[in-house]
Amino acid sequence: MHLPSYHLTFMLLASEMITFCLLVAPLPYTVRKKVFRFLSESPIVAKVAYALKISFIFVAILFADALQRMFRVTAESELAKSSQQGINDVRTETNLAARKFYSQRNTYLTGFTLFLSLVLTRTFYILLDLIHTQEQYAKLKKEVSSESAAQNGDTVKEVAELKKKLAAEESKSKDFETLKKQAAQQAAEFDRLATKYNEATGSVSNKRSD
């Protein structure tokens, strides 16, 4: 009765292993980004994921049933070994060994399917967060580069303005030095003329007094 269910469980396990290999494959960043965006945003993938969640509930039920069967077959095998009739009856021993093997196989099959589903889900979300982090880092890097470029442009403008102001101040200082020299020359010339004037007026007054 459980044979088709375990066949489906094995197919589910095989698909999980293939999907896990595809997720951890060294794909280029652009390809990985497109694939994960499709898996996280596609409504078809969302419906498939919902169906898989329901199937994993049935797998969990099969795991509990297989675990219970394994414990029961193990107890029957131990009881048969402790009995003289179980040791002498080869057919019974072979039947118990086969039942024990199948119960352990079903337990490992369902258990590993559930475990791999958890690993696959966690790996998918870790890689999705990594892609989002890389996108944010790329955006932040662009913003920082644009801001630095703008700041460099502003710095260049400020330096140019300061150079213009410095040139204007230097021209003003040159003009001031020129005016200062001209004023000194004019003052010296005025002193010279005043001295001559004083000498001339002094000599005239002396002649009149004689």
Automatic annotation (TrEMBL):
It is found in: Endoplasmic reticulum membrane. The keyword Endoplasmic reticulum applies. InterPro entries: BAP29/BAP31, BAP29/BAP31_N, Bap31/Bap29_C. It holds the Pfam family Bap31_Bap29_C. It is a multi-pass membrane protein. The chain crosses the membrane at residues 6-27, 48-67, 108-131. Keywords: Coiled coil, Endoplasmic reticulum, ER-Golgi transport, Membrane, Protein transport, Transmembrane, Transmembrane helix, Transport. GO terms for cellular component: endoplasmic reticulum membrane. Residues 157-203 form the Bap31/Bap29 cytoplasmic coiled-coil domain. GO terms for biological process: endoplasmic reticulum to Golgi vesicle-mediated transport; intracellular protein transport; protein localization to endoplasmic reticulum exit site. Its main location: endoplasmic reticulum. May play a role in anterograde transport of membrane proteins from the endoplasmic reticulum to the Golgi. Belongs to the BCAP29/BCAP31 family. This is Endoplasmic reticulum transmembrane protein. It comes from Tricholomella constricta.
